[in-house]
Design goal:
The chain is built from eight helices and ten strands. The chain is of the alpha/beta class. Helix 2 packs across helix 3 and helix 6 packs across helix 8. Keywords: ATP-binding, Nucleotide-binding, Transport.
């Protein structure tokens, strides 16, 4: 297993020397400090680090929802200067409209973007089948489990076929078994769509299971401590991966690095 990413051609996301400082009347906080990270098309990059290290802020900068104090971020070859329409974003909470069924919640994306109705409906139906939501198209959010709500949120984020998907702790509130099922589902969807994915998570197991690379960030101010390549096949069976010595070695290395960073902070 290597700890240096192999050379790749082209970038879907290019984060270059990004720093973020928040200033108030009483204090000045550096959330991110000199962060650089290229992400190649089709990669699945997992980001782990302690709470408050700026992981979520980094995603919001890529999405154009937060501006960096220093540095430059490019998405698909263009500088990020405002909210980006070509991305999908999945948050920890599904944030579904309670009065709309699952399919109608997915199609909210189409309404907001002015997508062709017929094309959007066909895409929604394909995503519903892909994510195992068939039969629950009209179910209201309170009639769905947490995992199924997150499936709806994922379909909504993928409706416009974004080349880049950003995910901020999307499965953090789920029980362990449902989380494992969603991890396996996400791995399959990533392989089938070829979407570039950046995932923020506090789970080392999730980061390794899903990622082609794992980026480890330091306590605040957030810096990249190290990047690990994940030496596992693209198609990942949960039981097989968990028993693979390569998974165990990498998970151990990640825990050691995070523990050392916390102790020295």
């Amino acid at each position: 297993m290597t700890t240096t990413a192999p050379v790749r051609t082209g970038t879907a996301i290019d984060i270059s020397r990004v720093s973020v400082r928040f200033t108030s009347r009483r204090s000045r906080t550096t959330a991110l400090d000199d962060v650089s990270l290229p992400v190649a098309p089709g990669e699945f990059v997992s980001i782990v680090g302690p709470s408050g290290c700026g992981k979520s802020t980094l995603l919001k900068i890529v999405a154009g929802l937060v501006r960096s104090t220093d540095g430059v971020v490019s998405l698909l070859g263009s500088p990020v200067a405002g909210p980006q329409k070509q991305i999908g974003f999945v948050f920890q909470r599904a944030a579904l409209l309670e009065w709309r069924g699952a399919r109608a919640n997915i199609l909210l994306q189409a309404e907001m973007r002015g997508m062709n109705r017929r094309a959007a409906a066909e895409r929604a139906d394909a995503l519903i089948e892909m994510t195992g939501l068939t039969g629950f198209e009209k179910a209201l959010p309170h009639e769905l489990s947490g995992g199924m709500q997150q499936r709806v949120a994922l379909c909504r984020a993928l409706l416009h076929a974004p080349p880049v998907l950003l995910m901020d702790e999307p499965f953090g509130a789920l029980d362990a078994l449902t989380r494992e099922q969603m991890n396996a589902e996400l791995n399959r969807i990533w392989r089938e769509t070829g979407t570039t994915v950046v995932l923020v998570t506090h789970s080392i197991a999730e980061a390794v299971f899903l990622g082609t690379r794992v980026v480890v960030m330091s306590p605040r101010p957030g810096r990249i401590l190290r990047t690990f390549d994940v030496d596992l096949p693209a198609h990942r069976d949960y039981a097989q991966v968990m028993s693979d010595p390569r998974f165990d070695r990498l998970a151990t290395d990640l825990r050691g690095l995070l523990g050392s960073a916390a102790a020295n902070h």
